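Model it.
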Amino acid sequence: MTLQFLSLLFILSTIITTALSTDLPLYREAPAFRNGGECPKMAWSSLHKKSLNPLDVIHLAMTLDSTYLRGSVAGVFSVLQHATCPENIVFHFISTQRQRPELRRIITATFPYLNFEIYNFDTNLVKGKISYSIRQALDQPLNYARIYLADLLPSGVGRIIYFDSDLIVVDDVAKLWSINLRGHVLGAPEYCHANFTNYFTSKFWSNPAFAGSVKGRKPCYFNTGVMVIDLRKWREGKYTEKLEYWMRIQKKYRIYELGSLPPFLLVFAGDVEEIEHRWNQHGLGGDNLQGLCRNLHPGPVSLLHWSGKGKPWLRIDSKNPCPLDYLWAPYDLFRHKSLFSDS
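Modeled.
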């Protein structure tokens, strides 16, 4: 056999193996988004211990998995499309070891100009710490990855915006990045009209030691799908350990029903830098049981979040979308076979 024939055989074998080893869908290539002339030149590397101009570089974290990949791709696309300085945004994706190579290939093919890193989330970190909730999706190990961002990301990343994979941004994310946390570890839109007691079971409120943990605070509900986090203060205060403490309590006593959210409420509620509600128009996926259609909250909108059971891509594909799902659709880069056939 000639060397040329062997090379061709190897290439064909690689293509076939890749095709057989993945069931992840394909996505259209996003256009290249470039900085305007007013944008500072970005200088950041994952190897840097410190960043010289941290406010010039926006660090954004999201999880990546096969179930929510379509939502993640739409979210990234929306961020880039509305950013004044898109080349100054670094995406930090958290995934599991098994899916990382294929997810990296898809992100690279869909966003050829994207500044990104993919980090491995060891699911053993939460093995034995997760208890079942009212929705199976909330029980997945990757749903708890936000607790470990300070450990997963390089030490040179001192601040991060965390986004869930079921949202789109319709404003310049630099506005969210530049907010002053005023000494707080975490910033998020708060919803103080919500009944805080509803997020915990009677076992929590009847135990003086547990209930006493929020005494002296004015805790308000906040959604953990949109957070601005000071990672340096997080590391100094060992907040991962504080969140893990409540996960262990939950495993033993069953003090809440909603996955990774309640530990954040117990650790941070009442000590959160309040961000405008426009940055998390949440609940668009409906309630956690039936996924009924919801309307927008009153006021301006910078971010639309389909938290809850119903996801826009599933409702659109099932030909039963909610009215607001049509606001998500323009950011969907999913390649429908019937529309983008190679035959």
